[in-house]
Amino acid sequence: QSLMCHALCHPQLEGLCSFLQLSVCPEPLLVRFCGWLLTLTPDLSYTSAAILAEQLFLRRVLSLTQPPSRHLMAALASFSSKYSQPFCRVLVAAVLQEPGKGAEQTKLVCELVEECLEPHCVQLVLSQVLEMPLSEQLLPVVQAAVGRQDVLPPELLDLLVLTLCQQAPAFSTSLDYAKLVTAVLTVYQSQVG
Q1: Domain for residue 76, yes or no?
Q2: Can you give the residue ranges of the Fanconi Anaemia group E protein C-terminal domain (predicted)?
């Protein structure tokens, strides 16, 4: 284990991941590997965790054409519970920015936002979404973040409201957009004046 820990703290991490074929290992093994990562002391550095998030999950998530297996969800939940910042910055950001995102990827991000991510990471995901042009596919992700009913920092709430107002003409016939605006007004009625 100490040898492995030394390797994980070393810049050769990508090579090690490739050697171990972590991006294609069977999902039950992935769950066990993520469980083992949680026991490491000291914790992985941000950079190491970001590399692992990419190596372990990115290809799997981007290639989803059906709902993820319970093993993959367990591994994602396990990894994101401890390394949520690099997880969001690497994996969630890549999924959100991928051109022609599939419905399964969007559903997966919604599920992570609703059930796995800490409140500060839900805010990070929301700010990542608001940095790009809203699309029909991104609306459910925003809805999931709003639905967590965590108190948004005023600047993020202002950005959300501004974005929704600016983009309203593009979504004049969108039911998801109407539901999102209603949710924002309901959850943050005391802050939206």
Answers
A1: yes
A2: 6-192
Say how many C-beta atoms besides its own lie within 10 A of residue 151's C-beta: 11
CA distance 138 to 101: 9
Q: Classify residue 160: in a domain, yes or no.
A: no
Query: Residue length, the chain?
Result: 193
Three-state secondary structure call for residue 136: coil
> Could you tell me if 31 and 74 are in contact, meaning their C-beta atoms sit under 8 angstroms apart?
yes
10: which residues sit within 8 A by CB, 6+ positions away? 16
At residue 75, the pLDDT reads 95
Q: How far apart are CA 52 and CA 91, in angstroms?
A: 10
Residue 87 CA to residue 38 CA, distance in Å, equals 14
Considering only CA atoms, which of 2, 85, 76, 67 is closest in space to residue 35? 76
pLDDT > 90: percent of the chain: 41
| pLDDT value at 181 more than 70 | yes
Domain of residue 106, CATH code? 1.25.40.480
CA distance 193 to 190: 7
Beta carbons of 53 and 87 less than 8 angstroms apart: yes
Kindly state the tokens that stand for 173: 């016939």
pTM equals 0.83
Q: Which amino acid is at 25?
A: C
Query: Contact, 142 vs 114, CB < 8 A?
Result: no
The tokens for 161 are 């409201």
